[in-house]
Amino acid sequence: MTALAPPRTTRDGASAPSRARPPGRAAAARRRRQNLTPYLLLLLPAGLVVLALGYPMGRQLVMSFQEFGIAQQFGQPPEWVGLSNYTTIVTDTYFWTVTLRTLAFTAVAAGATMVVGVGLAVLMQRVAAGLRIALQLALLFAWATPVIAAVAIWKLMADHRHGVVNTLLTGVGLGGFDGFHWLQAGTIPFLLVAATVVIWASTPLVSLATFAALSQVDEATVEAAQIDGASTPRILWHIVLPIIRPVLVLLAILQVIWDLRVFAQIYSLQQSAGNTSDTNLLGTYIYQTGIAGGDYGMASALAMIMLLILVLLTWRYVRILSRQGDLT
């Protein structure tokens, strides 16, 4: 039998109190450390985000209430003008024209991207393995193509002299497109080319992400519907798509955000069109007001309004995802 250790005593022979931490207190301290661990792990990335985005956004917000132009770039103190920049913007009819044009462009581009992307994902599920791999590689190459390179390709394809687009259209009997200059024929032809470039670059992500989600759908559910006599379109619309709805909603949110603030494609195409007032979207309008025009206070106010529009457009969908537990 193991001998028990004698209790500790003080100099006068009295037993010393035990210094061992009570089990309940030790467990509580351990739980507190475990609860703090996620916050400590998030501290560094959150700090980097605040440093990289928080200060510029705060600076932009302050500048939106100031008159900040070329003189301020050379050291003259900015003048505080309050809501003057915002008042000037919302009373300018051109701002509302550009905003409506941007919203229409976003709706068409994002909607077409989702339809084409989901359609390609469904197609990849139903073709042979070799064709599926070839299609996935083509999508990856399209996705990896730099934006400026993609714009240059589509400029050549839509060229009014030797472009393949006009050649195909005239080949099927549409003689009005012989020598048709897409980028200088007006706002709608220009935006059609721009939307095509944006859709072509955005579709691969939607297709590949949707295909990955479709691959996770339980086959037993689909087979049960087929046994009950449901057709393929009904199975897709009423069973498969609702199952992957969180993925589709998230992709739609991303597309709205990306297409609303599109800049590089529009700006590059405008260099060939020569007319910016009729083809401006919010991104290029902010650039021309700030960088090109030197009115950084007004450009900052435009950027804050654009941010507000983004929040309003995506807030409902973010709430939907939050209720489904995907963002909580």
From TrEMBL:
GO terms for cellular component: plasma membrane. This is Multiple sugar transport system permease protein/N,N'-diacetylchitobiose transport system permease protein. The chain crosses the membrane at residues 39-58, 103-123, 135-154, 188-214, 235-258, 296-318. PANTHER family: BLL4140 PROTEIN, DIACETYLCHITOBIOSE UPTAKE SYSTEM PERMEASE PROTEIN DASB. Residues 99-317 form the ABC transmembrane type-1 domain. One of its GO terms (biological process) is transmembrane transport. Coiled coil: none annotated. It comes from Nesterenkonia xinjiangensis. The lineage of its organism: Bacteria, Bacillati, Actinomycetota, Actinomycetes, Micrococcales. Keywords: Cell membrane, Membrane, Sugar transport, Transmembrane, Transmembrane helix, Transport. Residues 13-27 have a biased composition (Low complexity). Its main location: membrane. Residues 1-29 are annotated as: Disordered. It is a multi-pass membrane protein. Belongs to the binding-protein-dependent transport system permease family. It is found in: Cell membrane.
